[in-house]
Amino acid sequence: MQQAGPLDLVPELVPNDDPGAMPLNDLFNNIILPVHANYHPLGAPRGYVRMAVMDGKSIGHQIRALGTCKNPLANYKDGRFCTDHLHLQTKCGIFPCARNVSAPGAATCNRVEHQEWHRKYLQRFGRLSYPGVRRVIRRQQEVGEGGAGLQVHQQLPELEGTAGGEVVHTFRAKTLYCIETVQWACGVPVGWGKCYWSESEPQVLEILDNIWEGNGDFRPSFIAYDDACDLLHHIVTQDPQNPWIQSTKFIVDAWHYIGHRATDILCRRWCNPAPTNGSQPDLVRTEVDNNGQTHATRAFNTETAEQLNAWLDGFESQLRQMTAVNFDIFMHVLFMLFKEEVEKRIREKKIELPENFWDIE
């Protein structure tokens, strides 16, 4: 076994916004590796490692039509704003017009072009519902990729030089971008969080911080995530001394790693889920098959989050219609039910840990 050496072959990467910031080459070279990621002589005590698997799931409740406010909507039936921003109902729904609406309950001001654009919007989306979209998709799948299928080609008109699809408006509440689920590699859920507007690295890091807040000593040894390389890049450039860097190694899950660029040296060197150079013996183990042949296999299942997210598909239509509070409660209940189901499978396979496991020194 050999430990991966310094990044002496890594070309200079995109610099930080700060002109005086250290190049990423030097930042990664100066990282203090987690204890489990360092080289261990053959036969030396290694202890135990744990892997958490994280993934985004496009499911969520309604949120405010515009802006970055995270408060719940005042009305989940047909509302567009939270209680703090209800006054925006009296303003034109075309942003950034800011004129008063033409009449109580109207969606736009008295400008003819705004009223006409809103009329076109209602023709296109006014009667569109989530079950309706699902029916369209199902019919298209029944026709098959080679058939004509059921397709909608109508487009929104241009407004004041802005393409119809790019016009910013508040005619309908938006939907939570996705939730981020975190599990142990055995399948037992750990926690979850919300990504409101995109699955961005700052929001993902905030979710991890919230889950392990006050329990830094229990952070996982590894975290498998489809965009682990960009998440690691974000953490290092924001704070090279971040506790996550010293406690956890971030790797890309096996499925998505196939699609990552071979020229991305940072990803290949630091986020490889199964390096074959012996640098990460905790990720790769040797097994002998029935024919006596020796094979290198992955030590952890890095796709457990995908399996949980597929299970959540059965509850998607209910979750999308819930208020923020009901959504949160229901998600916690689903996580508890899935945890009990996973633990039941583990017991049936008789692979659970013995009661005295954590007493072993």
From TrEMBL:
InterPro entries on file: CxC6 (IPR040898)
Origin species: Psilocybe cyanescens
Domain (CxC6 like cysteine cluster associated with KDZ) ranges: 53-119
One Pfam assignment: CxC6
Name this polypeptide is given: CxC6 like cysteine cluster associated with KDZ domain-containing protein
